[in-house]
Amino acid sequence: MQRSRCLLRFVSLIALTTSVVAATPSVSSGASADPAKHWTADNGNGTYSNPLFYEEFEDPDIIRVGDTYYLAGTTMHMNPAVQLMQSKDLVNWELAGYCTDRLDLGPNFRLEGGRGIYGQGIWAPCIRYHNGMFYVFTNVNGAGLQVFRSQSIKGPWERNQLPGRHDMSVLFDDDGKVYIISSANSPYPIEELTPDLKSFVPGARHQLDAKMGEGHHLYKINGKYYDISAIPGATTDQMVARADSIDGPWTVERMVQGESLGITVAAAARATPGDRGLTLHQGGMVDTPSGEWWSVIMSDHGSAGRMVALVPITWDNDFPIIGLPGNLRKAPNTWVKPNTGYNQAPKPSFVHDDDFDSGKLNPHWQWNHVPDDAKWSLTEKPGVLRLHSLPAANFYAARNSICQRPPAPESIMTVELNTSGMVAGDTAGLALLSSPYAWIGAVKSAEGTTLQMYSSPNMSRGRRGASAAAVPDNPPTIGPANPPSRLWLRVHCDFDTDQAVFSWSVDGKEFTPLGNPFTTTFQLTTFQGVRPSLFHYNTSGQPGGYIDFDNYAVDEPRARGIEREIPMVKTITLASGADGSFLAADTQNNALVNVAADPDKPAPQNTRFQIIDVGLGRVAFKAANGKVVSVAGPQSVVLRDLGGAKPGDAESFQWVNLMRGDTMLMSLTNHQYLATQPNSPGAVTANALGASAARKSGAEFKWKTVE
Questions:
Q1: CATH of the domain at 387
Q2: What is the CATH number of the domain that holds 52?
Q3: By residue range, what is the domain housing residue 614?
Q4: φ/ψ (deg, to 5) at 352
Q5: What is the DSSP letter of 154?
């Protein structure tokens, strides 16, 4: 798991423990699966667009069992722990469950005494299947390596514990040996586990003596051993090592290089042309029954957290390299869905709404640390989530805060609450869990109730285990006194600007902002993106009253917008994001060029192209004179008269959406992109390797319909 150059020391716990846990999800009522309202990577035309999930999913590891794919991800300090997904087509995924409902390994895991495990807990799981059994291995800092096993991906899961191993991966070899590689420093130890996975084989040690990284994924493919590993950092690459024997020698290649998929380091609205981008790094790979290979790989996405992308793999000199022939070590943001032999209509993986009517929580909820189950209920008053307050100095130390991940690039979380059960000392509401954190809520005192918005000081990484009460405080923004007991609270997150606005309402329709916009960040204290949270705590040192939450709703305004449109059969102009220049047909020289835009005049006739649908989200461009744009070579893009013939590969371009309205055009001849030279009108080329994070390289365009 990437630690952005900040590595922790680990304490191994020698004692072996065994337990059985069950974590089968149940979906609550009131959740719409409409793909027009919730993000899905499936474009519905035989292609998909990244990210695979437009919300945080960390440290992915993937396997195939028969015709089904399984994905495991990091959950840190959240409960249930170790998230498991399943899919038939690698694009549309659904929650299969979790490995454990309660990651309860001591008082800190329960946030007792104000001490917690923020940024720790479950790291970088490895999922495997062997002899009819699913296995998930995951390290927990200071508590050892957890080994989960089950005959079903839905559990129940049995657990045993081994001494800790950082960012490990396990390989069940075909000779019966079980190898485990770990560590973030070369040489990387490769140890052997006993067949029951309950101890290490004494003296059985090998090593990978080459410069790699961390976040290992160990495989044996066609008799050769492979280890995939990511260089630590957020703007780094992923490596792959190959050997004929587990003892080496190992040969290393770069698996992906400098591929950001157009994701900026700074908030997108503040990106500069020189932004390096947040690059793909750390992920596993898997094959399909048809023989294709794919990687599910992670990249940072600012304050929304780390997300995963699905990218094709091309084998080159016996190395699995991310990318397509002609453009290796880069990845398309939009591409043809994998050939898995299974056809599925688009379906959202995550629908977060919950009306609490079913008697079961939406399984996408997670508790911040291990909850006290005696202090929350869906049955005490059916149809609501009732949270009884527990003593805490502040929200950061509060138990029984229940969280979700917010969809990007924009999401609006709204919840209804009834405060009539609160007593003096109680604080309850809607928060963004992060460091710093912020919330809007009701505060009860002996004098009455006030509505407040509060943002905390930052909790440094070094202080995350210390008492939250020791951190200097900020004054809250005070809203109306003695508001109605029935309220609606809302937070609107825009991850392009990293701004969140809190507001409130007495009728659920008209909302009034409270406090200044809160700047969201990704940081190393919680090691997660921001998390919307429902909370209730009491500052008197004793348990307090209760609060009822109802009708939690998540709106995704940009789940389907211009980012996902292709203007088929329409006539459009294409303007460079770098300088605003237009793609244009040079009819005299039969070439595609770019011409400077004149803000005082309409787009010239030669900048207008009709879009021809060639299937699979691919297009051809017909100029006003009837000729079609064609790639004659990386440096030569011409106009051709097809004489009524259908466009071929030279005339076909994959329409690639980067989100935020930016489009790239991938040539099918070399899997590279049409590009202009910024601030230099002239010939257009087909040799751009990928997107720049700020969308200003000359290969990113914005389209506009003119007819």
A1: 2.60.120.200
A2: 2.115.10.20
A3: 562-705
A4: -95, -10
A5: T
